[in-house]
Amino acid sequence: MKTKLFIFILLFNFAAATQCGAQHTRETRGDHHDTNFRYCRIVHKNSNEYTGSPYLNKEFQTGDVIKIDSRIYNDQKLRYNIYEDQIEFKNKDTIRIVPGKSFTKSVRIGEKTFIYTDYIINGKNHFGILEQLTKGNCSLYYRHKVDFEEAVKPSGYKEAKPANFMNVKGKFFIQITNKPIIDIHNKKHLLMQFPNKKKEIQKFIKTKKINIKKKADLIILVQYCNELNKASI
Question: Which of 94, 167, 106, 157 is nearest to 135 (CA)?
C-alpha cells in the first residue's frame, strides 16, 4: 500500500522519468526536461556502447525515502545515479526519479544515508545530494562525482573509443551545528571552523597522523570534534 501511495505522490509532484521509448518520442517534440532525457539516452543504452557506470551501485537496493514532513516510505527499490545527481526508484519494470527539493529530506539505501540539501562550494550556493558520513554537532558529508566522456570516432591513427563514465574524486563537506554546509578546502580551512578548539584538534591531527583527504581519517577527526563539544558542555 505504501508503495502505491509513493508512486501516486511521485506522479503528482513532477514529471517522472519513465521508459526510454516514451521519452525519446517526447524529446523529438522539443520537451524541455533535459535532465531526464540525458539520463535516459545515456544510461539506458546497450552496455557495450559505454564503459564504466553512472551509478554508485548499478543494482537497486532496498531503502527508505524520508519526506520533509518526516513521513517514511519503507522498503523501496532505490539506487543513486551519481552522474545525474538523482535517486532512482523502481516499481516492477518502471524507473522513476525520487523528487528532490520541497519533497524529500533524505534517502537510506542499504547502510548509506543521502540528504537533499543546500551546500556551498568556494562561496557559491548549490543544491543536490550528499552522503552523510557522520551526524552530530559537527557533521561530515561527501559528494560523489562521476564524469562522462563522449565516444571517440575512428579517424586517421585514432582508434574508436566507446563513451565512458569515470569515477572521479568527490568533495568532503562539514557542517557545524546549524551553520551552512561548506566544502573543506584544506587542513587550515578546517581548523578555522573550530576557533575555540583549534589547538586540541591540531594536536589530535598530528598525534593520529590524520590525512584530511581520506574518508576514514576525516570520520575519526569529526567524531573527536563531537567528543570535544560534549566535554565542554
Answer: 106
